């Protein structure tokens, strides 16, 4: 069993850390931004004051925070992880952040003699609790093999995509596909309802044909029922689309459908839905159409 530092025990990180505990690993937690969760401490985790102290105690240091600036602060800020590393320790960033920044972070960590994996996840809070996350990994094959038993405690579909940054690139690609599919389902159900058809029955009919998908099944039902509790928050998905559009600009390519979907997410946030599940994208479309698919 391994000594693991875990920094970022929020909606996703807490159940991920709990699954590592259940697998028998010893956890070290940082309290630089707040108290460590009581349930992890009562199960044997050790709370320390800073990421630096966590890095000194742990063989593997997992980071699971909201965005690129938070990862940079945890790794390279005052008393950050980088100041507590020694050769052959492994930093695993499981946040969803910029692929470009990830490559720079990895280079700086690798210069210390430690090793770096970017390993963002897909599957939401449900997958985090169930230990069934999809994990997309970038880094050296040898480092991946060392970390694989830990990743298997948190996920089921675990893929080494390529070198550092490629895991984050795969996650951004995932978020593009999911967002565009959610928008397609929302537009289809709005179109059906505006034409006077029952969107629930339209969804049932489509589930038997080529348009069937997991998103039509799960998010389509949420749209029809108006159940938008997170889940994966719409503001986090918008953040991921911003990463996609920034990356596209760096690469000199155009992602017109991604840009359009990001604008609908922006409308959703403007009408007060930033903390809804991302299936609430339909609220943005309804606002634009001044029409709701649900009977009020």
From TrEMBL:
Record bears the keyword Oxidoreductase: yes
Lineage of source species: Bacteria, Pseudomonadati, Pseudomonadota, Gammaproteobacteria, Pseudomonadales
Protein origin, superkingdom: Bacteria
Keyword 4Fe-4S: no
Start and end residues of each 6-phosphogluconate dehydrogenase NADP-binding domain: 3-162
Protein name in UniProt: 2-hydroxy-3-oxopropionate reductase
NCBIfam families per the UniProt record, alphabetical: tartro_sem_red
UniProt keyword terms in alphabetical order: NAD, Oxidoreductase
Pfam families: NAD_binding_11 (PF14833), NAD_binding_2 (PF03446)
The 3-hydroxyisobutyrate dehydrogenase-like NAD-binding domain, residue ranges: 165-283
Active site: 171
